Each structure stands twice: as structure tokens, then as C-alpha cells.
């Protein structure tokens, strides 16, 4: 298994820019159950599945605003190849030097350099050691 950051760095060899994100939002009703956002939990927010008020998955006002922001990013990207616009926080193209990711969390997404850098450095070092890479 290799990280999204490693794959984004490899995109510099083609003409399409890469963008990385880190989904961090956990609904208040689930914060005692989950120490962080479970893998794949962003899908419901990107594609508009809020759950019912009072249910375990309900995302509340913060989650609803995040879902709206994410739907905007995904829709603009599908339509134009660029997720930015409509006054949303800028989602930068990935650049290995700045290592800036879009952190998808409430109250709104934000660009943050070096997200989980130490963990990704370790993962990539182990991967490259095993495959005999650079």
C-alpha cells in the first residue's frame, strides 16, 4: 500500500495536476465512538447522504455545511477539471515542496501544509525499501 501523497508526487510526470485531501470530520454523535474519521466516511458528504436528524450518522449544521462545500468542489471538478470557484476556500494543486493538502473538516475546508507528514514519510520509506525504489 502506498500513500496518496506519493501518487500525487508521481503526477508531476504527466500533464494533469493532482490535488490531495484529508477528511477529518466526525459527527458529534460519533465522536466518542471514533477517534477520527473512518476510512471512506467522506463519501456520504461528497455525495449528499446526511442521514436522518437524531440518527447516529446525522451530520448536524457543521456537517451539512461541509457536505455543501464538498459537493461544490466535486461538481466543479467534474465540470471543469478544477474544484475551485464560487468563493470556496482555494484547493491548491499538489506540490511536493509545500506538501499542502485540503483538510475537509468543519466549520469549512482549509489548505494545510504537511498533513500527517511523519506517518506518510514512514509509510513511503518502508514501501520504497521493499520495492527497491529511490
Descriptive overview:
With 134 residues, the chain is of the alpha+beta class. The protein has one domain. Helices cover 36% and strands 9% of the residues. It has four helices and three strands. It has a three-stranded mixed sheet, with no helix packed on it. It is globular, with a radius of gyration of 16 Å.
> Which sheet architecture does the biggest sheet show?
3 strands, mixed
DSSP E strands, number: 3
Task: Measure the end-to-end span.
Answer: 16 Å
How many structural domains are formed by the residues? 1
Tell me, rounded to a whole number, the average pLDDT. Answer: 84
Alpha carbon gyration radius: 16 Å
Summarize the amount of helix as a percent range. 25-40%
Spans where pLDDT lies below 50 across 5 or more residues? none
Share of β-strand residues: 5-15%
The string of secondary-structure elements, in order, is HEHHEEH
Spatial order of strands in the largest sheet? 1-2-3
Our count of helices gives 4
Using the alpha-carbon principal axes, give the shape.
globular
> What structural class should be given to the helix and strand makeup?
alpha+beta
Amino acid at each position: 500500500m502506498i500513500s496518496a501523497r506519493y501518487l500525487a508526487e508521481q503526477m508531476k510526470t504527466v500533464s494533469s495536476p493532482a490535488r490531495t485531501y484529508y477528511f477529518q470530520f466526525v459527527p458529534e454523535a460519533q465522536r466518542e465512538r471514533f477517534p477520527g474519521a473512518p476510512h471512506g466516511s467522506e463519501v456520504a458528504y461528497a455525495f449528499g447522504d446526511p442521514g436522518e436528524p437524531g440518527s447516529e450518522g446525522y451530520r448536524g449544521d457543521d456537517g451539512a455545511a461541509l457536505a455543501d462545500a464538498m459537493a461544490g468542489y466535486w461538481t466543479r471538478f467534474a465540470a471543469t477539471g478544477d474544484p475551485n470557484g464560487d468563493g470556496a476556500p482555494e484547493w491548491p494543486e499538489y506540490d511536493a515542496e509545500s506538501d499542502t493538502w485540503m483538510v475537509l473538516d468543519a466549520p469549512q475546508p482549509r489548505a494545510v501544509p504537511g498533513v500527517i507528514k511523519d506517518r506518510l514519510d514512514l509509510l513511503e520509506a518502508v514501501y520504497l525499501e521493499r520495492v527497491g525504489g529511490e
